[in-house]
């Protein structure tokens, strides 16, 4: 005879009631996260006069999107954000993957010093880096350049994500690399040909996280860039002017900025979930 | 084909942990040597030093007469089978087998021939296209063996290759490894904590404890002439019984409820211990249930009866000591609480110094 096990949570309720309750709870949680986004999309579709009455207007228009896309500076900002996110991801992955590997596999003074360094930098509040970085960027002539923004981003990625990568490599059995060493590989060969291919899901997950981090980043972009390298998050904020708030344009820009992040998360989620499950 | 020699081999981890202490060992060409001992005895570390996966703190390793201390693993021409198989997860079986030879830039046609040969020996032909995670534990371990054969190395190293398999499969693979060694005779070092594996596979076995070699010898010599109490207790299953006895006058040892005569040579060796306590060791399978002459037998009380079908294992109490009796005929009518007579042939008795625990050889 099959055993019927009582569910642990709310086991006393009848099955239908319990299911309904769970469905409602799930819906409430989804609504909590989705509501601001829905509101944003609605706002972006309203004419400028209607943004404060999103809930009771019936007039919808794509004019805000058209206006936003006609602005050269904004298109430039999209290109810049995409470019810097991609470059930062590529360069930081090169370092993060090898540094995570080192932290996972090698014990010794070099490894523990490196570990200590990124630990300290991780503990420092993010915002307190900005002012010194501004001065450094100014004096090195890197202010408002791609490189001036790229370098701090790569540094932050390395400090934040080397730990994750270490965790991934901790989950991969080192004896596979030992077998490769015996089978004729050098230490680098074992890393590149055996450890790295096994870590591809994790590296993909990390790539998605890095890219989204830089795409969404605001503080560095605000302080370290001016007119020459506009970034999407900064340009979006600049709709707050002395002349008033252009909510409809800001919302339209935000919706456009959501799209690549949304797509990446959609296609990358398989890897992110698999990669983060250690 | 090659010999291996270890000369005063030492391994320190930091200043506190001395994992391998002055290990001397000569392994002949084509010999199969099993390193056996409890976990943490340094056997795996010794193997990994031979492979080149661990640095050597002191001493010398020679393979085929050449000192390899500072050679990286890839230049030592050894092959290794790991406990968890260590197959390359992202490659199929064929590529796993080919990996070592491709690293040596061997032409593909030769690689294919070598793989065909290995697959024939191990029955891997059906599995070539599969990824390791699509294989059972036994199949994975066969692929790992195949990876070694394909390379045709000087030395095979086995690091507890059977301990992840279930009991039945382990017995099968044990036979497979034995057959493999007969077909492809290669100098082999096999690390295990399972004394049955060591006994059945090794031409010679090396018993280790706390980083030191306790005894080296053929399985039979280690079984029948253990050099100390540790080896006596470790080799053989069920483990040897140890009873504290006093050496009495006239060829006898005594304990509470026990008086056993010893052989003439043993009596001579025990002469120096007269009146003192020594440890008597006797294997469960050498004790015989039933009547026995005075001075060759003793009484004890049965506590647990384990019916195995082919035989009965008895746990019994003799004074303050618990002893095991094996090979009791399965049909014997015996129950817990019974008082039974057990005889112990004088030629099967071992004696150990109570303090140093070394064997007192007669």
Topology:
The complex is a heterodimer of chains A (278) and B (362).
Chain A: H1 15-44, H2 63-70, H3 72-105, H4 109-123, H5 130-139, H6 146-170, H7 175-182, H8 187-198, H9 200-216, H10 219-224, H11 232-237, E1 240-241, E2 244-245, H12 247-276
Helix pairs in contact in A: 1-12, 2-12, 3-6, 3-9, 4-6, 6-9, 7-8, 9-12
Chain B: E1 4-13, E2 17-27, E3 32-36, H1 43-51, E4 58-63, E5 66-67, E6 78-81, H2 93-103, H3 108-122, H4 137-151, E7 155-159, H5 167-183, E8 187-192, H6 195-201, E9 204-209, E10 212-217, H7 219-224, H8 229-234, E11 241-247, E12 252-255, E13 258-261, H9 264-270, E14 277-282, E15 288-289, E16 297-307, E17 311-318, E18 321-329, E19 339-343, E20 350-353
Parallel strand pairs in B: 3-8, 3-9, 6-7, 7-8
Antiparallel strand pairs in B: 1-2, 1-4, 4-5, 9-10, 11-12, 11-14, 12-13, 14-20, 15-19, 16-17, 16-19, 17-18
Helix pairs in contact in B: 2-3, 2-4, 3-4, 4-5
Structure description:
The complex is a heterodimer of chains A (278) and B (362). Chain A contains twelve helices and two strands, in the order H-H-H-H-H-H-H-H-H-H-H-E-E-H. Chain A has 278 residues and is an all-alpha fold. Chain A folds into two domains: 39 residues, no CATH class; 205 residues, Orthogonal Bundle (MetI-like fold). In chain A, helix 7 packs across helix 8. The radius of gyration of chain A is 24 Å and the shape is flat. Chain B is of the alpha+beta class and 362 residues long. Chain B has two domains: 231 residues, Rossmann fold; 113 residues, Beta Barrel (OB fold (Dihydrolipoamide Acetyltransferase, E2P)), CATH 2.40.50. Chain B is 26% helix and 33% strand. In chain B, the strands form four sheets. A six-stranded mixed β-sheet of chain B has the order 6-7-8-3-9-10, with helices on both faces. In chain B, a hairpin with a 2-residue loop joins strand 9 and strand 10. In chain B, helix 2 packs across helix 3 and helix 4 packs parallel to helix 5. The mean pLDDT of chain B is 91. The chains are: A mainly alpha (278), B alpha+beta (362). At the A-B interface, helix 7 and helix 8 of A face strand 6 and helix 2 of B.
